[in-house]
Amino acid sequence: MQSITNTATRYGWATILLHWLIGIIFIGQFALGFIMVRLTSQRTAFELIQLHKSLGFLLLGLIILRIAWRLGNATPPLPPSVGTLERHTAPLAHLALYAFQVALPLSGWALVSVSTLEIPTMPFNLFVMPDLPLTESDAAESFWAAAHWYLAYLGIALVALHVAAALRHHFLLRDSVLTRMITPSSGGE
């Protein structure tokens, strides 16, 4: 039987589902953000922006849950085939991924909070999300728009590096790093 929690050698269902769900939403968010700012139809752009904000709040909630789960669960060690340099840089790369995954939606929330347009944010049309206690101004909006844009591209670079490392482990090193994030642990491990 597959385990919801991690074991000493593999990740459990909860970690795997959160990992892939966050990854899919993030990549979708990047594509959505890229498309929505290039549309000529203001109505469609507005609807996509609202969807982008809704998914951003969902992503923020999921990453906070993922970090809490990570802190409360064992993490399988890297296989013996992994060298010393990578053993030291892998945790830093994961920390950078977590940090940007929190910073990116927070920068989006700050952006809508300082906007002089004062358009309410309603995640999935369920409730009005309160703005962060920041001062509205065109200068602040420009700052947070730039911060959100740069964080998005930094995030894509980090995700690309993460994917490249996983593929390297799977195809070149032929170790279990990628497969243990696909196949959950069993209770007997």
Task: Give a verbal description of the structure.
Keywords: Cell membrane, Electron transport, Heme, Iron, Membrane, Metal-binding, Transmembrane, Transmembrane helix, Transport. The chain is an all-alpha fold and 189 residues long. It has a single domain (11-179), classed as Fumarate Reductase Cytochrome B subunit (Up-down Bundle). It contains four helices and no strands. Helix 3 (84-114) runs antiparallel to helix 4. The relative contact order is 0.17.
List keywords for this structure.
Fumarate Reductase Cytochrome B subunit, 189 residues, Cytochrome B, mainly alpha, 4 helices, Cytochrome_b561_oxidase, iron
Any chance you could write out the topology, listing elements then pairs?
Blueprint: H1 13-36, H2 42-72, H3 84-114, H4 138-173
Helix pairs in contact: 1-2, 2-3, 3-4
GO cellular component, one term: plasma membrane
GO molecular function, one term: electron transfer activity
GO biological process, one term: respiratory electron transport chain
